[in-house]
Design a protein that fits this description.
- By secondary structure, the chain is an alpha+beta fold.
- It has a domain of 231 residues: Jelly Rolls, CATH 2.60.120.
- Helix content is 33%, strand content 16%.
Length: 331
């Protein structure tokens, strides 16, 4: 049984649900393999103090196979069908990305079940060195990126993610693409941001020094790589020629729920996605409840008032920070 939050019973009305889909079967639709290479946070220049704040030292992997041929064919077909309901059309929210779908699990049960697959979570957990489950915020749990219609735009500009762990899975034949490469900065996110003169997670489409850029090649469609995305400064380049370029980006949350997690709900509160404020509220309430439950089990009658206040503040701080950010939009 999954350790993450179940998908909500409701669905934002802007998201069109697909009918007549095949049933996801992990034994038929997954073909999980291991990457040839993993780059640690330490190798990227992060200090031991930086790494102590992260769930693990895992940084980014090379591409590895995720989908079987049958699984790839089904997910490609679903993502093509969702294209006309992507987030830059019919009022479903716009942000840094050129053309994308968030909350694909609302629209497709097959994709929801793929992202929720325990086999996938177990495979990625072993790779990451920490226990992962499908992300508890449905908007980011199952995302899809398409090539922007305006070729002057990057598929995605230099940025860090608002979640810790995600995979970027290629659904198109990478050998047909001219441009559109996925790249990351070989260094810390602060170094990359300082060079470009930005801060925070939202990105900018400007060049970094070529000798500090690493391109992650995809051997074929159905392959993807994993990254600790809130620590890896990365982008997807512009396409030089118009082509189909579809990637799926499933995101994962660190479990159990009381442990520290890299989800940045305060940043995501500024995104224009249907249902997202409620999704983030569920996520932060779930994590806070788990931390409070742990406090109930661990508090000692010998703890000082100062220690008790600190423990309560730590348990509630992320929820209250998100609450304060949300309140700004209604005041």
């Amino acid at each position: 049984m999954s350790e993450t939050l179940r998908f909500p019973d409701q669905r934002p009305t802007e998201y069109i649900k697909l009918d007549g889909e095949p049933i996801f079967n992990a034994s038929k639709h997954l073909q999980l393999e291991n990457p040839d290479k993993v780059v640690s946070l330490q190798a990227l220049g992060y200090s031991s103090d930086d790494i102590k704040t992260c769930p693990s030292d895992f940084g980014v992997s090379s591409a590895f196979r995720i989908l079987s041929d049958e699984g790839l064919a089904i997910i490609r077909d679903i993502c093509l069908k969702m294209y006309d309901n992507r987030n830059i059309s019919v009022g479903t929210g716009v942000n840094r990305l050129g053309s994308y779908v968030r909350g694909a699990g609302y629209r497709s049960k097959f994709i929801k079940d793929f992202c929720d697959s325990p086999e996938l979570a177990q495979h990625l957990s072993a790779m990451a060195g920490t226990k992962l489950a499908r992300h508890s915020v449905p908007a980011v749990a199952c995302g899809v990126n398409y090539a922007p219609e305006d070729l002057r735009r990057a598929v995605d500009s230099w940025h860090t993610d608002s979640v810790a762990y995600d995979i970027v899975m290629m659904l198109s034949d990478p050998h047909t693409l001219d441009g559109g490469e996925f790249q990351y900065f070989h260094g810390t996110k602060t170094e990359g941001q300082d060079i470009l003169g930005i801060s925070g997670e939202e990105g900018i489409d400007t060049e970094l020094p070529e000798d500090r850029i690493v391109t992650v090649p995809f051997p074929a469609a159905g392959y993807g790589f994993m990254q600790q995305g809130n620590m890896i400064f990365h982008r997807a380049r512009k396409l030089n020629k118009r082509a189909e370029r579809m990637t799926m980006i499933p995101s994962f949350v660190v479990v159990p729920a009381h442990v520290d997690d890299g989800t940045n709900s305060v940043n995501m509160a500024g995104w224009d996605d249907p249902g997202l404020p409620a999704e983030l509220t569920r996520h932060e309430a779930w994590r806070a409840a788990a931390r409070l439950g742990q406090l109930v089990d661990t508090v000692s009658l010998h703890d000082s008032p100062k220690r008790l206040v600190e423990d309560m503040d730590k348990a509630l701080a992320p929820l209250l920070a998100y609450r304060d950010r949300l309140a700004k939009d209604i005041n």
